[in-house]
Design brief:
Layout: H1 11-14, E1 44-47, E2 51-53, E3 56-58, E4 75-81, E5 86-91, E6 97-103, E7 105-112, E8 123-129, E9 134-138, E10 142-148, E11 154-160, E12 172-173
Antiparallel strand pairs: 1-9, 2-3, 4-11, 5-10, 5-12, 6-9, 6-11, 7-8, 7-10
Length: 189
């Protein structure tokens, strides 16, 4: 039986292709470490491994010996975001956020508004999820917005270095469609 082998285009044929859209950038290395994307100065991401146990999984959320920063942990809280819900935009003058997705999937968009920063005006997008745990450290002066992109509610845990002050909140807000930030959240992507 004669079989013809189907081949993809060779290098000469590629020049004839008409491309539209944009080519994906590398997001992961072969060892499954995340490739760095467009970064914002002072923003750190620590990939975390789930530990399988006889009764489920254990996930460390934060350890001082990871040496991501040398700041204290003064408060830990969780925020539950409904599917498709958007919590944006937030920034702090003094506090550092450490964000972790404990359940569901979230997209965290960062915008560097610090005038003296080498990455002023830079946007970066991070996806955090139950399946691929990570801790995202967001320094003061970086606007951040969070959107639940799973079909379930998402739980965001934040271990801040300065506890929320009820009398004088270090919490600044802009609406999710603020003209000052060149990003628009879309419905559940």
């Amino acid at each position: 039986m004669n079989q013809q082998r189907m081949k993809g285009p060779d290098a000469n044929d590629v020049a004839e292709w008409r491309f539209s859209g944009s080519k994906d950038r590398q997001t992961t290395y072969a060892n499954w470490d995340l490739a760095p994307g467009p970064g914002i100065d002072g923003v750190l991401v620590k990939q975390i491994t789930n530990v399988l146990t006889d009764d489920g999984t254990l996930t460390e959320i934060y350890r001082q010996d990871w040496k991501l920063d040398n700041l204290p942990v003064e408060q830990v809280f969780q925020k539950i975001i409904s599917p498709g819900g958007i919590s944006a935009w937030h920034a702090h003058r003094k506090a550092t956020d450490r964000l972790f997705c404990g359940y569901g999937r979230i997209k965290v968009v960062l915008y560097d508004a610090r005038r003296q920063s080498p990455t002023v005006g830079q946007l970066s997008v991070h996806r955090l999820a139950l399946e691929r745990p990570a801790l995202l450290v967001v320094p003061p002066g970086v606007w951040h917005g969070v959107q639940a992109v799973s079909d379930t509610p998402a739980i965001v845990v934040n271990a801040v270095d300065i506890a929320y002050s009820y009398e004088d909140p270090d919490h600044w807000r802009l609406p999710s469609d603020a003209a000052e930030i060149p990003f628009r959240f879309t419905h559940r992507n």
